[in-house]
Amino acid sequence: MSVPVLTLVEFTDRPAPSAHAPLVVLGPSLGTSVTALWSATARALEGDYRVVGWDLPGHGASPAAPEAFDMAELAQGVLAAVDRSPDTTSVERPFFYAGNSVGGCVGQQLLLDAPGRVRAAVLLGTAARVGEPAGWAERARLVAAAGTPTQVEGSARRWFAPGFLQRDPVAATELLHDLQDADRASYARVCEALGSFDVRGRLAAVDAPVLAVAGAHDQPVPPEAVAELAAATGGRTVVLEGAAHLLPAEAPLEVARLLAGHFAAVPTDPEGARA
């Protein structure tokens, strides 16, 4: 087991915010790049925040993972990527966090293991335990042997609410291409990390403000599971009626509005910056 090396993606390019602009870190879903999943939401946040994202091992811009890792090590990789960023004004700088699916699992791990780093979190389409260990082990074996194209048909059904494929075929196709192009061994290792992830007994320790967002049509993580996560952290829940599992792609403006509102409610620091 080892901490994976992750690549940070810079979203903010117009106009460049000040060095003291609040930092927002975005996390992806299994099989997606953070760019395809979050770009539309990130554009809506530009000007008020510096927005970055990270890619899973073997997905998007991140290199493949040569060894297995668990969710805690994945969270450590996120912190290391943020601290390596040349535009980060200080090491161990606090930030706002938003993550979808496994990106939300990493968010929970960050809240627990690095509580001083996360000012507030928005956790989308995720839960304190996602799926069953046996199911993740089976998927890991299949993908390791036959590759990520085995997951495209099922993911197209699970990821999107009815009508999204017809409404935005470009976004849907980009996400499915990301899945097909993901490194099979790294995808399998993320599955294994999900299979061992279970923080249901720990979430009462979270003291940062949490907003949990569910898609009404989400099959992998139904709204009831998202509501349980919110209750366990003392947070609140919002259900988006027209979305399923990949909420930042399906409802980018609504997700951006939720992020901005949640983060704006956090008191400013003594220098006037929220992060």
Quick recap:
This protein is an alpha/beta fold and 275 residues long. The protein has helices at residues 34-45, 71-84, 102-113, 133-146, 152-159, 164-167, 169-181, 184-196, 223-233, 247-250, 252-264; strands at residues 8-10, 23-27, 50-54, 95-100, 118-124, 210-215, 236-240.
What does this structure look like?
This protein is of the alpha/beta class and 275 residues long. It has a single domain (8-264), classed as Alpha/Beta hydrolase fold, catalytic domain (Rossmann fold, 3-Layer(aba) Sandwich), CATH 3.40.50.1820. It is built from eleven helices and seven strands. A seven-stranded mixed beta sheet has the order 1-3-2-4-5-6-7, sandwiched between helices. Strand 4 (95-100), helix 3 (102-113) and strand 5 form a beta-alpha-beta unit. Helix 1 (34-45) crosses helix 11, helix 2 (71-84) packs across helix 3 (102-113) and helix 4 (133-146) runs antiparallel to helix 8. It starts with 7 loop residues before the first strand and ends in an 11-residue tail after the last helix.
Topology:
Elements: E1 8-10, E2 23-27, H1 34-45, E3 50-54, H2 71-84, E4 95-100, H3 102-113, E5 118-124, H4 133-146, H5 152-159, H6 164-167, H7 169-181, H8 184-196, E6 210-215, H9 223-233, E7 236-240, H10 247-250, H11 252-264
Organism: Kocuria turfanensis
Pfam family, one: Abhydrolase_6
Protein name: AB hydrolase-1 domain-containing protein
